[in-house]
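Thread title: Can someone regenerate the structure for this chain?

I was given the following input by a collaborator and told the matching structure tokens would be attached. They weren't. Posting the sequence so someone can regenerate them.
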Amino acid sequence: MTGTNFVSGATVSFSGGGITVNTNTFVDSSHVTANITISPSATVSSRDVTLTNPDTQSDTCVGCFDVMLPAPTATSASPSSGHRGTTIDVIVTGTNFVNGANASFSGTGVTVNTTTFTDSSHVTANITISASATLSARDVTVTNPDTQSATCSGCFTVILPAPTATSA
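Best answer:
Regenerated them for you:
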């Protein structure tokens, strides 16, 4: 915390539940650091931060600390490849996805039509792969509504369509 007139022994506290102050460290008259633990069940919100000197004088910085959702991770896509000229569903697996998350694919020629939130570990992207899409591995990115995102590097590949036999 930054401010003025802090003294040795000052403590920091946070409004709302789910934040535990493990230690307070007096740095100088303008700085005190707090080592904290945020519970996974802590409500996502802005919090007030109060600094209290040992003589009980205190001041509160309103809304100075934000509890946010953990950043997502993206670890795989299934199927991991798709043929040019097709529309398919791709299930992206990871962690910390939230309702409203969107998927995107790197490069050109792959269009995400819809993204459906299944649960915190899965979203389904309905994609169309153009007939002229470059044959290559693609990164798949999932972005939560709070703009935190995760990328699975090269986890989806555009491939040629299956062969078609017309005569023998």
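The chain has two domains: 11-67, 73-159.
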